[in-house]
Amino acid sequence: MNQINIKVNGEPFTVSKDESLETLLLSYQVNLNSVALVRGGQVVPKTLWAITPCEADDEIELFGVVAGG
Amino acid sequence: MSLNDEQFIHYSRQILLPELGEYGQTALMSAHVAIVGIGGLGNLCAQYLAAAGVGRLTLIDGDSVEVSNLPRQLIFAARDSGKNKAKVCADKLRAVYADCDLIAADCFIDNANASLLLKDASLVLDCSDNFETRQLINLCCVRDSIPSVIASAVHFSGQLLTVDLVRYPQGGCYHCLFPCELKVSQRCSTTGVLGPMVGVMASMQALQAIKHIAKITPNAGELLRFDGLSMVTRHATLARDPSCAVCHTKVKERTDESN
Ligand SMILES: [Zn+2]
């Protein structure tokens, strides 16, 4: 099997090779409308998640919007 | 605009900074900053910017002071309860900072009044307290080509970014990062927040604003997240969403203009 190891918010996670960021979020059981995504220190806009594949050793950060002040 | 002797002494500790100098101080004195939301973030940003010598501040808030605001909205006192936040803040700052022209707008920003309220502003500080207002401010700033410094704080989480499609088109806008369909789970009124947590974010927002005005390496195009529990700060490079409903046409216009 073509499995690759990545990290999501610092925790190890395994996904299939060529899995998209969107598929990753779904298998991570995250509502797509609840987070922003940073991959390797770079924001990936939501419209690109479905067409951006995960790569080995990716460090993914997921976080919600903070709107208060 | 040039500095008189009195101003030179008054702002000497700022002018001493080689990054700021007389150029930066003059830029501050010529700047017009609109602050949307005079709550936890906004009252502190207003104080810092007025004290730094920003020439004109427009303070926008339709809300009134409540006693539950006092632990983090340091400019207000119990006797201000029930009075409009923008007006009270403007009155108090006017009495202390003679170089700053203070305008108070005692209304909430909305689709109909936004362009008028932000008219002539050279920079907008988004100090608002809800996602819908943040989207509206972004929309107006992108449409009217006004850069914005955006900060937020709830619980022990803070976020800070600068949107400037002229200087940093590749960073995109607020909507590129947080599209409007996003669901927000936490609010100050329901989750709680500490005064210094808001203070950290407000200080960073005011610092970014001053640097932006003085054109000092402004980290535009970068998102900063601060965790007040672990005290960890994380940085990420912002990326424009090529199909962003808000800034797509604006960035296209700019590219067409420069071609
Ligand atoms: Zn955008």
From TrEMBL, chain A:
Protein name: Thiamine biosynthesis protein ThiS
CDD domains named among the record's database cross-references: Ubl_ThiS
Pfam families in the cross-refs: ThiS
Automatic annotation (TrEMBL), chain B:
Name assigned to this protein: THIF-type NAD/FAD binding fold domain-containing protein
GO terms for cellular component: cytosol
Higher taxonomy: Bacteria, Pseudomonadati, Pseudomonadota, Gammaproteobacteria, Alteromonadales
GO molecular function term, any single one: thiosulfate-cyanide sulfurtransferase activity
Listed InterPro entries: ThiF/MoeB/HesA, ThiF_NAD_FAD-bd, Ubiquitin-activating_enz
Pfam annotation, one family: ThiF
Organism: Shewanella colwelliana
THIF-type NAD/FAD binding fold domain boundaries: 11-245
Family statement drawn from the similarity comment of this UniProt entry: Belongs to the HesA/MoeB/ThiF family.
